[in-house]
Inverse folding.
């Protein structure tokens, strides 16, 4: 009895204290944000002038083009990585973070950048990294550094090391090109007098599937990026198109017409067999695997107009996903599987949509006329797409919340069909 | 809609050929899987396809015209093209060994892949019309060029109409 | 030790206006440092418990309820820390050692 009373007293005491604590806590609601960018200082690294090209200028360009960062001018200040930065001077110039570092030559033509990223407000180190590179790898190293800073300050992985494949048309000449995330410094993978469409990266980033018309009909090829060699993946009777890799890289979903109408098949690349997975008397095309490999999202006009559907990757009943508008095509799935992007037609204008699958929330991200081929960046927060400016095809990217817009390298030629490669594993 | 025996054979044979081609990466130009005769593009002199092509070169020939046009979002062959289809069917019966390729097209509005599928429906419609007139379906391959090979590029209805078509090609032309 | 009354009104002798002004000052300073990372959609809300010293120095920030976006939680915690030292009230009786901040950065 006494024990129980004591327990009860303890509990009451705790309860009273709890109330006191709750009462002592001041609750404040805060809405809105600053709407401003993250200010980062990128002084030249110590000994950076020994490099054939500036590292920090590429980093600066990457971060500024993301539109999330403002690079603060710090004049001739150098911030070596082995000393505490002059926080006062940096915060006075408005910097919230600073990249400190030096470049060391470790062998002829080989360098090492030793870096530390400091938070100038909390006066603490956020992250550090050693990056090694030769002259040919300098740009890739700079993109890795930009990724590091981007992720440390936003919490979201950067996309600066991803590769972008796309097609350039000039007159009757088509080139499949592979470049940096912004399309710059692109190498040509294929030149053809006939169209090339629908490039698709393998999950390991080593191969590119695409459709070529060089045989007077659409045929799917797989191209090995490192060697430039290619093989035919699908040349069945009729048209072969819309290649999409499975997340494990062992299968390719394709659209074949060998049964008399466009239907979706899965090509098992190890068994070298094609299995039909869609079963409708209508057009089923543009398949794309979900990141867990279990589902295929695709375009179908089985309901009377082209809409996005989903079915099990092995075939089966399809569920309709899009219900707004009479034309929804070209789906891609976000890397976390939670959202889709696709093209919707409204009043004759083709625009990029972001569609959250868990809530059904749909947002139109662009206000252009002729957008096509939207694709998620491997980090999931940006969508690249092809659009038109002044009658020419250009590539652009938009963040999934619509706030940030980038124009990617427009070489002046007619550019289309972007495919953003996965993050290297 | 069952598969014809020949088509089943294609489905069975194609993967084997694909396997053969895929086991080592092939050089460009070494096109693998296809049931089409690789030598089709080389027309031997005096061959049936050469004779056929020579015959329809004449503008007065009923099968001289190779293109069938379609209405917006439609795949049915309009009555005004019926006689053209008949003329080509008769030509094909006259030269029963010559292979045929039908290329369907679509205007450029919208998704490239969806337009490829629309073009395919037009090509299939012509193929089916020819088959209904007695031409063996196995010798006709229906494919699509989608919006990729337009005959004009203006953004107006007149140009769109010119691109909504199916073209009939004979062995030697592909 | 001064105890602010969370929901039941200001301690006697301190006006509601003074309390509101103190809250506004904290609100403004934290908001000023909120930078929303990319990919955040809808109207997410995060809740943090914050402990401050009498001079406004933030000594502890604890996520109580996530916004649903990990990157946003990180950004909001940064903003709270960057706002340190928080504004101090002209009347020391208003000071609250513990704050519960409810943030909705995409709301107007």
């Amino acid at each position: 009895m006494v024990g129980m009373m004591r327990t009860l007293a303890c509990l009451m005491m705790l309860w009273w204290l709890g109330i006191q604590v709750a009462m002592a806590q001041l609750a404040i609601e805060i809405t809105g944000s600053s709407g401003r960018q993250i200010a980062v200082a990128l002084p030249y690294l110590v000994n950076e002038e020994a490099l054939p090209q500036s590292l920090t200028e590429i980093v600066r360009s990457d971060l500024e083009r993301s539109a999330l960062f403002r690079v603060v001018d710090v004049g001739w200040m150098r911030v070596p990585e082995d000393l505490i930065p002059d926080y006062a001077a940096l915060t006075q110039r408005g910097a919230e973070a600073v990249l400190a570092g030096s470049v060391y030559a470790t062998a002829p033509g080989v360098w090492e950048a030793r870096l530390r990223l400091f938070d100038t407000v909390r006066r603490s180190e956020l992250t550090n990294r050693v990056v090694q590179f030769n002259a040919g790898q300098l740009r890739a190293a700079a993109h890795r550094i930009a990724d590091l800073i981007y992720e440390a300050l936003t919490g979201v992985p950067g996309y600066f090391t991803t590769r972008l494949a796309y097609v350039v048309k000039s007159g009757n000449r088509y080139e499949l090109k592979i470049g940096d995330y912004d399309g710059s410094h692109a190498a040509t993978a294929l030149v053809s007098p006939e169209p090339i469409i629908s490039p698709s990266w393998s999950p390991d980033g080593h191969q590119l599937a695409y459709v070529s018309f060089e045989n007077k009909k659409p045929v799917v090829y797989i191209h090995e990026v490192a060697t430039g060699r290619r093989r035919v993946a699908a040349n069945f009777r009729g048209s072969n198109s819309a290649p999409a890799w499975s997340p494990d890289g062992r299968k390719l979903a394709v659209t074949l017409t060998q049964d008399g109408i466009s239907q979706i098949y899965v090509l098992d690349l190890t068994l070298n067999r094609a299995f039909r997975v869609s079963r409708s008397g209508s057009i089923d095309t543009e398949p794309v695997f979900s990141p867990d490999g279990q589902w295929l999202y695709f375009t179908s006009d089985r309901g009377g107009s082209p809409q996005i559907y989903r079915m099990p990757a092995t075939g089966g009943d399809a569920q309709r996903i899009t219900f707004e508008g009479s034309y929804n095509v070209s789906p891609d799935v976000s890397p976390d599987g939670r959202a889709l992007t696709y093209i919707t037609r409204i009043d004759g204008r083709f625009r990029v949509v972001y569609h959250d699958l868990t809530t059904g929330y749909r947002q139109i991200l662009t206000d252009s006329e002729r957008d096509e081929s939207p694709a998620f960046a491997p980090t999931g927060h940006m969508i690249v797409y092809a659009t038109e400016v002044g009658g020419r095809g250009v590539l652009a990217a938009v963040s999934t919340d619509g706030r940030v817009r980038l124009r990617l390298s427009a070489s002046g030629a007619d550019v289309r069909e972007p495919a953003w490669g996965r993050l290297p594993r | 809609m069952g598969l014809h025996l020949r088509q089943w054979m294609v489905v069975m044979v194609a993967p084997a050929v694909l396997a053969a081609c895929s086991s080592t990466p092939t050089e460009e130009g070494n096109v693998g899987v296809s049931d089409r005769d690789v030598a089709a593009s080389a027309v031997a002199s005096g061959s049936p396809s050469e004779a056929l092509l020579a015959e329809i070169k004449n503008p007065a020939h009923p099968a001289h015209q190779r293109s069938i046009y379609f209405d917006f979002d439609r795949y049915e062959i309009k009555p005004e093209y019926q006689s053209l289809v008949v003329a080509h069917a008769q030509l094909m019966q006259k030269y029963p060994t010559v292979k045929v390729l039908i290329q369907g097209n679509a205007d450029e509005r919208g998704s490239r892949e969806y337009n490829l599928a629309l073009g395919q429906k037009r090509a299939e419609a012509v193929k089916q019309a020819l088959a209904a007139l007695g031409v063996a379906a196995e010798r006709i391959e229906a494919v699509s060029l989608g919006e990729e090979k337009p005959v004009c590029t203006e953004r107006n209805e007149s140009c769109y109409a010119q691109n909504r078509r199916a073209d009939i090609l004979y062995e030697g032309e592909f | 030790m001064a105890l602010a009354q969370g929901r039941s009104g200001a301690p006697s002798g301190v006006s509601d206006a003074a309390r509101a002004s103190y809250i506004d000052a904290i609100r403004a300073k934290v908001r000023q440092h909120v930078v929303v990372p990319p990919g955040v959609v809808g109207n997410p809300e995060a809740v943090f418990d914050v402990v401050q010293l009498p001079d406004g120095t933030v000594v502890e920030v604890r996520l109580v309820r996530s916004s649903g976006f990990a990157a946003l939680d990180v950004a909001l915690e940064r903003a709270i820390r960057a706002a340190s030292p928080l504004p101090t009230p002209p009347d020391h009786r208003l000071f609250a050692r513990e704050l519960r901040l409810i943030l909705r950065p995409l709301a107007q």
In short: The radius of gyration of chain B is 17 Å.
